[in-house]
Amino acid sequence: MKYKLLGRSGLKVSELCLGTMGFGTEAGWGADKDTSFKIMDTFAEAGGNFIDTANIYKLGTSEKIIGEYISNHDRDYFVLATKYTLKDNITNPNASGNNRKNMMRSVEESLKRLKMDFIDLLYLHIWDDITPIDEVLRAMDDLVKQGKVNYVAISDTPAWVVAQGNTLAELMGWSRFVALQVEYSLLARTPERELIPMAKHFGITVTPWAPLAGGALTGKYLRGEQGRIKPESVRLNDHSAEITRAVVTIADEIGISASNVALKWTTQQGFSSIPIVGATKVEQLADNLKTVDVELTAEHLKRLDEVSAIKLGFPGDFFREDAVRINSFGGFFEKVEKRA
Known about the structure:
Blueprint: E1 3-5, E2 12-14, E3 17-19, H1 33-45, E4 50-52, H2 61-71, E5 79-84, H3 100-114, E6 119-124, H4 133-146, E7 149-155, H5 159-172, E8 177-181, H6 195-202, E9 205-206, H7 238-254, H8 258-267, E10 276-278, H9 282-289, H10 298-308, H11 316-339
Parallel strand pairs: 3-4, 3-10, 4-5, 5-6, 6-7, 7-8, 8-9
Antiparallel strand pairs: 1-2
């Protein structure tokens, strides 16, 4: 597996990130500890070092399983990312949210479950629309200075908030966000309106969650197989089925799985992207790991772009129209100059 720099940092992470939301069997689904260990073994043997979890995944079981596994392996090899924000206990009114008190409490609890002295990458999990961004960044920077966190990141937050935060952090000399985690796939391209252009501007790596749209892009629902997506989900409507059929067609042409096509698409969009690959079975991960050997052609990308295209709205579509006008004027002026 190749390694990439995470955002504007010197941190080297694998080109695929292992998602561990399914580590644990709470709620009647997921991988037990032995299976989770085998999944992490498979990932590490392929050169994977980037692991993603959160304080609330499986009520903390995900962090516990990862902590037990890494405690018996080389801690320095792995780049462990976890998150804080969402409610993980009922002891107090500040057991959720982006505030400093919850951040500090959550990090201490995560470190205990992970059996670690530090977290490589700490994400704000979801914007609460209450806490000032300067409170978040100052607290994160304090954790970095304390040696409990190495790098900071943000997830599921409006582009303007992230932009304000990184600008403030640069001004104040605080740790800046190096990664942005958002839902992004061929069935969920709306981040292209604001979030991805913002990430490109600030040199932030995007780490797409649900790059396979909950399994919809694997083609299994087209084949009539069962899954955990509700029948009324937008991931299963007629347009989504059309996009999935295009993915399956290209996969058949190349001789690879639909998952490989869908995952690779997220990494060939002209910005730094490391998709989060979740797995509750070793064979699922084994197939997804084959993605690193895939390269989609310009023609493949064009077909996928056309079938999944979205309206950018204002100002994105306006800029596109303006670019056409500017190009037209450019041609006109070029002709005038030649005549002169």
